[in-house]
Design brief:
Dna Ligase, domain 1; 4-stranded parallel sheet; 8-stranded antiparallel sheet; 30% helix; 12 helices; D-amino Acid Aminotransferase, Chain A, domain 1; alpha+beta; 4 domains; Rossmann fold
Length: 461
């Protein structure tokens, strides 16, 4: 099979899911810029022809490193699934003459550039101002309607996001955001191509009001969705929509769910606005993950587009429900092979699947009163999920048993995650209800010793 170079960095789908799907289409050589998950090594390592671990480097140095390893293994494609590596991989692919996201990849990474492109193209985005100094904060409150959301321009997982109501709060939040991004960078969760990008680059934007009940069949859904897709030689192929539970303040994702319980006509409207957004970015060949806010009376705003698939277990959710192996499709596309894209975005699937992030906050966003130790086996899962539903622990994205559940910090976003669970159910409403019961019961369930002889459904993801 043709060799490919897979550049591993923090984030993205677990290797135990991703590597076997890459290995089904290519000879996989791994260049690891972050620690590899040893707990699942027995699953992903057999799919690798070679594994090289190196310090990541930055900018041109990192692109040089990727190119050197790609030439060494004779790679026909270079692939990254992490948000933090997609820019470096795109530049390396350009230099190597390989298919990739292309020279305009920064528009799918830097939230400031992304919004400028969309504003100029007439794609609906909230009002925003870039923040480089305190003067920019003053200007923001002169032209935008508070409350405003402070965002780190190169962040992922809602890291470095804070809600502010006035200039004083914004200046304090800016300092907090930079501190959080510095701490995140120290843990490897930072942009690898642009030096200091995650620490110093921010924007303030208006918080648009979502209205989920105008869109969804049933209650309990969050007010935004994501369109998963692939751009192939400049042509965008939207594949399906995934939904959400309501976020935790300010906008930290708690659960990603497939399918989204949207009527087909509304899914088509979301499909078209995502097409306008992705087309405006001018990407060449890459995965896409486009988030759309849903407002009253059919209003929509673009939140962001990333040149990679959705995080956590989004790729597995899509495969379970819609039958699309998106990672395998992308590998084939990057290698110039035939890929069977659906004629139109799929709006119906079979069953339901979701990723549930364990955060130390209840359904109303209130912090847990105690922080018990994390232990998947301590929870009576059959008591929390419907008959026919299953829940599994995603070991690569979960703390070791016995670790204390970290307190939730708004600016830290997904960095406060204790664990990730993958769920399947017979229908989207059942899946949503399962997730709701788990969120409500988890603090007490973790604090209560398990019953003797109790078993848990499912197996590691």
């Amino acid at each position: 099979m043709t060799p490919i170079l897979f550049v591993h960095a923090q984030g993205g789908p677990p290797l135990e899911y991703a590597v076997p799907r890459m290995a089904a289409h290519a000879e996989v050589h791994v260049l690891a810029l972050a620690p590899l998950p040893r707990t699942t090594e027995s699953v992903w390592l057999p799919g690798c022809a070679s594994v090289t671990t190196v310090p990541p480097g930055e900018g041109v140095e990192l692109v040089d490193l990727i190119c050197s390893h790609a030439r060494r293994v004779g790679a026909g494609a270079v692939l990254a699934l992490s948000e933090y590596a997609v820019v470096a991989v795109a530049h390396a692919s350009l230099r190597l003459g390989l298919r990739g996201a292309g020279e305009r990849v920064a528009g799918a990474r830097d939230k400031r550039l992304m919004r400028r492109i969309w504003r100029d193209a007439g794609v609906p985005v909230p009002g925003f101002t870039e923040v480089h100094s305190p003067d920019d904060i003053t200007a923001a409150f002169e032209t935008l309607r508070p409350p405003l959301l402070l965002k780190a321009a190169w962040s992922a997982g809602s890291t470095g996001h804070l809600t502010v109501w006035n200039e004083q709060e914004a200046e304090a939040a800016w300092k907090t955001g930079r501190s959080v991004m510095e701490a995140s960078s120290a843990q490897g969760y930072a942009e690898l191509h642009a030096a200091d990008a995650g620490v110093s680059d921010f924007l303030l934007e208006e918080i648009v009001t979502g209205r989920a009940r105008d869109w969804f069949d049933g209650d309990g859904w969050g007010d935004y969705v994501s369109v998963e897709g692939i751009v192939a030689g400049g042509r965008y192929h939207p594949l399906c929509i995934t939904g959400r539970m309501p976020t935790v303040a300010p906008f930290t994702e708690r659960a990603s769910l497939a399918p989204a319980a949207l009527p087909q006509a509304l899914q088509r409207r979301v499909e078209e606005v995502s097409r306008a957004a992705v087309d405006a970015l001018g990407l060449d060949t890459c995965a896409t993950h486009t988030e759309v806010k849903l407002g009253a009376d059919g209003a929509m705003w673009l939140i962001e587009t990333a040149a990679r698939f959705g995080g956590v277990m989004t790729t597995r959710q899509v495969e379970a429900v819609f039958g699309l192996d998106m990672i395998g499709m992308l590998v084939r596309e990057l290698l110039g092979r035939d890929v069977g894209y659906p004629d139109r975005m799929l709006t119906e699937g079979e069953g339901a699947a979701g990723s549930l992030v364990v955060l130390a906050v209840d359904a109303g966003g209130r912090p847990w009163t105690t922080l018990p130790a994390w232990d998947f086996e301590a929870v009576d899962w059959p008591a929390l999920i419907a008959p026919g539903s299953r829940v599994e622990l995603v070991r690569e994205h979960s703390l070791a048993p016995g670790s204390p559940v970290p307190p939730y910090e708004e600016a830290g976003g997904a960095n406060s995650m204790a664990a990730l669970c993958f769920l399947t159910a017979e229908s989207a409403p059942r899946l949503l209800a399962d997730c709701g019961r788990i969120v409500a019961a988890l603090p007490e369930a973790l604090a209560t010793p398990p019953s003797a002889g109790r078993s848990t459904p499912g197996s590691p993801a």
